[in-house]
Design a protein that fits this description.
Layout: E1 2-3, E2 18-21, E3 24-32, E4 37-40, H1 44-49, E5 63-64
Antiparallel strand pairs: 1-4, 2-3, 2-5, 3-4
């Protein structure tokens, strides 16, 4: 899953960092601080226990590093 408009939280991001989205800690697999995007892998268990499978946009207020 790719999140965009995340530039403000990517200034010191590294692959393997955790970013919390809607109360779920996700591991960064790819990021591009210039584009303001980051990717995470979502396991079937994560999809079944969260709303992230239907998540359309990223509310930066819900994302913390």
């Amino acid at each position: 899953m790719t999140f965009d408009q995340a530039g403000p939280i990517l200034d010191d991001c590294h692959v393997g960092d955790s970013i919390c989205v809607n109360g779920t800690c996700l591991t960064v697999t790819v990021f591009d601080s210039e584009k303001g995007t980051f990717n995470v892998g979502l396991a079937p268990e994560t999809l079944s226990r969260t709303n992230l499978g239907t998540y359309i946009g990223l509310n930066l207020a819900g994302a913390d590093k």
